[in-house]
Specification:
Layout lengths: L22 H20 L6 H6 L7 H10 L12 H30 L9 E3 L2 E3 L23
Antiparallel strand pairs: 1-2
Length: 153
């Protein structure tokens, strides 16, 4: 079943200068434009005379559809190529994440070679990458101690 997006809750807001649509609203607009274009191209005067007359009122905005596809991927996430600044920000974030991962691996290797770790791999806890150090070696590496185990083996 084809779901026609419900746009009446937000369509008026685009008349306001400098108003912004959410990614979800852009997705609904894109779907509506696609549906409108498909129905308009499918309904010809010979086979669908009644519908053909109605399609004159349909809004088709090919340039808008192209622009929306340039800005959003198939999941309607903003593409990095949407702007030069966004592209640079995402590149910087990726570079920082790579640097953090490299440093963490280097520190983990040092801890492993000195037998300071209690596990043989890095651990994710509360969305943070952690080095599981033995409590007796917790001061050997600079950083924040996130938790201590009360169980001693």
């Amino acid at each position: 079943m084809l779901n026609i997006p419900e746009i009446k809750n937000w369509i008026e807001s685009i008349k306001i200068q400098n108003s912004l649509l959410t990614a979800n609203q852009f997705e609904e607009l894109s779907k509506l434009l696609d549906i409108s274009e498909n129905v308009k191209s499918f309904c010809n005067a010979k086979d669908f005379p009644y519908w053909f007359n109605l399609t004159d009122t349909f809004f088709v905005w090919k340039k808008g559809q192209i622009e929306i596809r340039k800005l959003f991927n198939n999941e309607f996430q903003v593409r990095s190529s949407a702007s030069n600044k966004l592209n640079q920000i995402r590149k910087n974030i990726n570079a920082l994440q790579t640097e953090i991962q490299t440093r963490t691996n280097r520190i983990f290797s040092l801890a492993q070679s000195n037998n300071w770790v209690q596990e043989d791999q890095l651990v994710w806890k509360d969305e943070r990458l952690m080095i599981p150090l033995q409590s007796t070696h917790k001061r050997k590496i600079n950083g924040v101690i996130h938790s201590l185990s009360l169980i001693h083996i």
